[in-house]
Amino acid sequence: MKRILIACEESDEVRGRFEKLGFDAWSCDIQANRNINANHYQCDVFEIINDNWDVMIAFPPCTHLAVSGSRWFENKIKDGRQKEGIDFFLKIAKANIKHIAIENPIGIMSKNYMPPSQVIQPYYFGDKAQKTTCLWLKNLPKLYHNSTPNLFVDIITHTDKGEFLEWIDKKTGKLKKQPLWYAQARSLKSEERSKVRSKTFPGIADAMAKQWSDYIFNL
After folding, report:
1. What digits encode the pLDDT tens for the residues 123-137?
2. For labeling, which of 60, 127, 160, 161 is most exposed (least CB within 10 Å)?
3. Cβ-count burial of 112 within 10 angstroms (0-12 exposed, 13-18 middle, 19+ buried)?
4. Residue 55 and residue 139: Cα distance in Å, rounded?
5. What is the Cα gyration radius of the chain?
6. What angle do CA 8, 129, 212 make, to 5 degrees?
7. CA 148/CA 159 separation, integer angstroms
8. Which H helix or E strand runs over 206?
9. DSSP 8-state secondary structure symbol assigned to residue 134
């Protein structure tokens, strides 16, 4: 049985799907898994990252790396938080695991590591939402659109990009727009807001599980 580690996940969105497809699937996060029955390590991922995994899908924290928070970069560079985020990401990327996928939003790792293998959106996979998502892949194929199995998603033209909230900025008078799912999270407490905004959409989780499990089991 192939062993897969879903690093930095507490939602069970991805891990559970791989388990159903025949993997010995485990998640790891410093938080408890929301699914109390899940195979889960509640610890620092580097405590178990060398435990003979065949595959790792990782969602390293993006708080200090994503361009959406660039207004705070100066302070984060000065106090070392950004370097900590970069070092964590790079340590994940260099793990001694044959098949690795790392997910993060648009951020500084394209320059501090390498350009992503692929950039995808939830609406590519059936979720009516926009969230630009980068994937860095090692010995795994790009994800393709479910309805066009021989065409990679980064060359498909899409028209349904989800629901958006629009408003006029009082300071500039300019029209502003945000994905509705992201804007609605503003009403949540900080910890819950962070969980919602870092979520893996079901369509992407399905594509990861189905496509990559097919690839790995057919090697």
Report:
1. 899 888 888 999 999
2. 160
3. middle
4. 10
5. 18
6. 50
7. 16
8. helix 202-217
9. E
